[in-house]
Amino acid sequence: MAIRILITGGTFDKEYDMLNGKLDFEETHVPEMLKLGRCTVDTEIRTLMMVDSLEMTDNDRELILHSCRSAAEDRILITHGTDTMALTAAYLAKEQLDKTIVITGAMIPYKFGSSDGFFNLGAALAFLQTLPHGVYVAMNGRYYNWDNVRKNKKTGYFEEINSTV
Amino acid sequence: MAIRILITGGTFDKEYDMLNGKLDFEETHVPEMLKLGRCTVDTEIRTLMMVDSLEMTDNDRELILHSCRSAAEDRILITHGTDTMALTAAYLAKEQLDKTIVITGAMIPYKFGSSDGFFNLGAALAFLQTLPHGVYVAMNGRYYNWDNVRKNKKTGYFEEINSTV
Amino acid sequence: MAIRILITGGTFDKEYDMLNGKLDFEETHVPEMLKLGRCTVDTEIRTLMMVDSLEMTDNDRELILHSCRSAAEDRILITHGTDTMALTAAYLAKEQLDKTIVITGAMIPYKFGSSDGFFNLGAALAFLQTLPHGVYVAMNGRYYNWDNVRKNKKTGYFEEINSTV
Amino acid sequence: MAIRILITGGTFDKEYDMLNGKLDFEETHVPEMLKLGRCTVDTEIRTLMMVDSLEMTDNDRELILHSCRSAAEDRILITHGTDTMALTAAYLAKEQLDKTIVITGAMIPYKFGSSDGFFNLGAALAFLQTLPHGVYVAMNGRYYNWDNVRKNKKTGYFEEINSTV
């Protein structure tokens, strides 16, 4: 069961640039994370962009959608900034592709030692292998349907818009 | 969807005892891992034992089985040493409980900085929420049915006994 | 031999604020670093300020100088942002206190996993215990006299202004 | 000021062997530690052996002494297991070389995430550049003369045999 991984940036992949003291992007850390996780799932990684999701445009989302549509695999993992994850999920869902698409990310950069990113990556890969076709956000150890998820900007946790609990 | 987590020890929870230079168990790290992963899944943790799985006895497995059977939750995560994971999975499967049971662990202790344990925990929790009733081993980003899994002791990776690939 | 430690902020103590995605200060990490280093040197820690050294004013430097002068200890460690370390060293040196003062810091925040800060702290404490009275900058495993040091902003390394090599 | 670094093993350089679950030696981590510490001190590294210091023989100590004597540099850092550091220090001191020799190590392996080793390495390099000729042990942020140091095996801290405090 092959999985396509599309990298778009986000906190997940941010690094500290010691020369200017700012947060920046270099290469994605997903390959080293898969190695550290001793992952034997068959994956194919493509870096589409390296952007803060607040700066992601509709052109960027169109590129992501195009990459999902044209991928040979029907299971697709997207790493993404948390701020507009739900927006991109909705953008992709409109297309009703016969694929399982899971969007994940991190609240703290993977390189910063105490990141949720490695945990999220494991969970997202697992959800991809077991959920039916559809578009989902995987954060906080859970998955959310694309039309029932938002990030609570005060707490930094994801939650359902209409909780059934 | 509540999940019961049963701790049994294994490499996952091993620590370095600086006074005798040996690997040892103290408390489980699962609660701090769930916090670091910013996990919002409803979990209930019980430490059953803290043993190297090569030293796990049938009495120990009976205790694990009893804890699975008597748990109020029908989704159960077991952290376990990797060497006899498949053995414990088979032991639990014989009972045919109407529950989803996922056994996970790590090849490198969580406290040792470059462990697969945090990734495995994320994946195991995700598989628990999506797989039908049954007994599974979750390692290397994948899940294995209890009757089709073994640890390759030369490589340290898990593999299917009868690969369908 | 007691050592006074004065905290002023700098990259050393910066943290990632997950809610706004920016680098920020909370508490200093020096106490936990001393514990991790299993340090048995008698130290007394005071947080004077938590600022980026590019924003440090002469008022701030006056406060640092006052704290050096009035400290009971004659060995003083100052944690400081790297950009104006040499400036503060010169400011303090003018006063010609009968004390050994060592300024140190980090190019990468201590909390970010691959920081030079822990190494620098060990070196700075050692230099403090062995150097004669004077004002020094300790970075990159070396010490520099206050009047012969600058940060090379292109490389991020400290160097002597007049190298005798 | 060039420094010769002699590697002998010890907890400092121990690693976790995931295939047999034991602690083991592979390569020394000193080069990557110097890089992480952004160290610009001129150093020359030689690995003499990779042993637990409880298993170090007089032959091993003779080799260390020979390496100290024949080194071109008069400043020598030795990484060493903590259990017999004081013994090796005394062995080297008998020779009364006109050199500054500092022995250091760690209570927790460098690779295990919360090690004192990186702090100790910074301190040891600093002591080497500032102490007069002689043989010293550098641990816990302090230095000890070769004839006035012992490891307290109950606490894991080093202490003076005759405290003058």
From TrEMBL, chains A, B, C, D:
Residues 3-155 form the L-asparaginase N-terminal domain. The active site is at T11 (o-isoaspartyl threonine intermediate). Gene3D superfamilies: L-asparaginase, N-terminal domain (3.40.50.1170). This is L-asparaginase. It comes from the Bacteria. InterPro entries: Asp/glu_Ase-like_sf (IPR036152), Asparaginase/glutaminase-like (IPR006034), L-asparaginase_N (IPR027474), L-asparaginase_N_sf (IPR037152). One of its GO terms (molecular function) is asparaginase activity. Substrate binds at S53, T82, D83. It comes from Taibaiella chishuiensis.
